[in-house]
Amino acid sequence: MLNFSFHNSTRIHFGEGQIAQITREIPSDAKVLVIYGGGSIKSNGIYDQVSAALSEHQWFEYGGIEPNPQYETLLDALDLIKENHIDYLLAVGGGSVIDGSKFIAAASQYKDGDPWDILANNGRIKSALSLGVVLTLPATGSESNAVSVVSRGGDKLSFASSRVRPLFAVLDPAVSLSLSTRQVSNGVVDAFVHVIEQYLTYPVGAKVQDRFAEGLLLTLIEEGPKALAEESRDDLTTRANIMWSASLALNGLIGMGVPQDWTTHIIGHEITADHGIDHARTLSMILPAVMKHQRHNKADKLLQYAQRVWCITEGSDEEKIDAAIAKTEDFFTTMQVPIRLSDVNLGSDDIESVVTKLEAHGMVQLGEHQGIILEQSREILQLAL
Ligand code: NZQ
Ligand code: ZN
To answer: Number of structural domains, the chain?
Structure first.
């Protein structure tokens, strides 16, 4: 196991009715800005629950954060914050609203130049506004991690700072019942790939991390399809298991002390930036190709994954790896997401611009051994056609 230091400071309030906790979580004298997306919270009762919990607080609201939050929309919030001396942000939404709020929290305190530097030039974040979260879409883990992903034109960039890690997060599985089938699928697949990218590298004797990761994968494989099936889509136990799995998938825990390989995400982000395809759907198309391309580098872990996650015990090592990749693709198909670029009408003509973007963003040495150079990324994209 590799050395690590672990600290996750986000307090989690999990379960039905827990939105009421924000009354106590946010100091009574705070000036709060409630940040949300395109308005789903107004039609599914979440806004009303948040309003009730904040009835004794002084609060303002800022809606309209888009999926894949746009830089300009986030900057527009800064005037409101300044004019009203806001000192606490409450993000109510999915990964986009939470990531956007993290950026606003940092940008509103950024004094060292253009806030774009936070994303594009590693601008140092010395302070940020306090941030709390009401999660409405289990997927990204953003509710208790330090990462934010922001888009501007054709760029989709990220930053990480412990100063924007939410102070608390409410995870009420009941709020996920209003999600569309597409968003439920996306969430399960995104969480699944987060686990894989911290697991499918090479063994370092990290038994606890491996078994946590395998437990999360097994839970997502079991519960994901249930959340799509007519007869069980409203089952709150299923929703609770998906919500907690997605949070644990990217709260830092399973990634401690192990090598990581974020190739699928890095290539996927460029595809979203180029073509606007949902984040999770880029991952479901790229991951099988990464597994195929890296099958020799990742052979030990692929065999462990085959045996422990998919119970594949028959055949040669090569056959077991083939079967594990096929099972992964079948799972994605069951979850109703594409597994080939051609499934979303992308072809070989679309590869070069993704490769060019990877180069422009310095993503030229990916993988747990930094061995996936641009030529290999191109090959992975070709395998995904
Ligand atoms: O905007 P509203 O009206 O709220 O509708 C949203 C949006 O249209 C809707 N939705 C959310 N909760 C709902 C709901 N609809 C009905 N009922 C509810 N309870 O869902 C749509 C998608 O929301 P979005 O927040 O975009 O989805 P997701 O949570 O998948 O977030 C995706 C973003 O997170 C980034 C992605 O790149 C993408 O920009 N990621 C962030 C990460 C992180 N911070 O650690 C890691 C991830 O790998 C990922 O990159
Ligand atoms: Zn993701």
So the answer is: 2
- Report residue 138's pLDDT band, with 50, 70 and 90 as the boundaries: very high
Residues 291 and 337 in one domain: yes
Are residues 65 and 160 part of one domain? yes
pLDDT digits (tens, 9 = 90+) for 153-170: 889 999 999 999 999 999
What's the whole-number mean pLDDT along residues 121-126?
95
Is 0.85 surpassed by the pTM of this model? yes
Beta-strand ranges (E) seen in the chain are 11-14, 31-36, 58-62, 88-93, 130-135, 147-152, 155-160, 168-171
Distance 323 CA to ligand 1 centre (A): 32
Ligand 1 pocket, mutate which of 96, 135, 185, 272 (most atoms under 8 A from CB): 96
| CA 61 remoteness from chain centre | 24
Domain coverage including residue 64: 11-174
What distance in angstroms lies between residue 99's CA and the mean position of ligand 1's atoms? 9
Write down the pLDDT at residue 154.
87
